[in-house]
Amino acid sequence: MAERDGDRRHVSDALREAILRGEFLPGERLVEAQLMTRFGASRFNVRSALTDLSAEGLVEVQRNRGAQVRKVSLDEAVEITEVRMVVEGLIAARAAERVQAEQASELDEIGLLMRRAVEAGEYRRYSDLNSRLHALIRQIAGHQTADRIVGTLRGQLVRHQFVLSLLPGRPQTSLPQHERIIAAIRDGDPKVAEESMREHIASVIEALRSIDQLGGPA
């Protein structure tokens, strides 16, 4: 039983990562036979993985039509990000309470690399560093429940996050926000850390709404 559960988790993790990397697009059908071949998995484990990812909101399973990568509208993306704002604010506050000197140095290093990436116009690198920063903050906070919630919410927003990263001027807007978050956590100030994180994610919501006004992806 333990081996079967491990195989199921392996397929779930592999498929989740493929979706988050954009290897499967929103609305694309997930054909069981193809997934079995790709992951070297049994039909049972593929179906179990699809069920798992359906519960996470990444996959939509329809009776008699099979599974597909779930489309998330901009309206829903805004709602998801509003929830993220609350939960990630909590995480930032907890990180400020728990941060150690070595972790503070790592935060400073990421902040410096982010600034260099913006100055060099390396926006894909900036996006990668952004993900690394938020992951480190979650690690410092050590709040397992909040971490699971944010992981699920961010997964549902992967396509919109990619579009946001391409918005003109977005990195220049978010960089000082990230620097304020880093400073508050490094200084051990949970109140300012939470406020700074919430302000940052509120600006993400504004950016999402600007995509809507520009006729971005539905």
Automatic annotation (TrEMBL):
InterPro entries (UniProt xref): GntR_C, TF_FadR/GntR_C, Tscrpt_reg_HTH_GntR, WH-like_DNA-bd_sf, WH_DNA-bd_sf
Keyword Acyltransferase: no
Ranges where the HTH gntR-type domain occurs: 5-72
PANTHER family associated with the record: TRANSCRIPTIONAL REGULATOR, GNTR FAMILY, UXU OPERON TRANSCRIPTIONAL REGULATOR
Keyword hit for Transcription: yes
Species in which this protein is naturally found: Paractinoplanes tereljensis
Name of one Pfam family that matches: FCD
Molecular function as annotated in GO: DNA binding; DNA-binding transcription factor activity
PROSITE patterns: HTH_GNTR
Keywords carried by this UniProt record: DNA-binding, Transcription, Transcription regulation
Source organism superkingdom: Bacteria
Annotated protein name in UniProt: GntR family transcriptional regulator
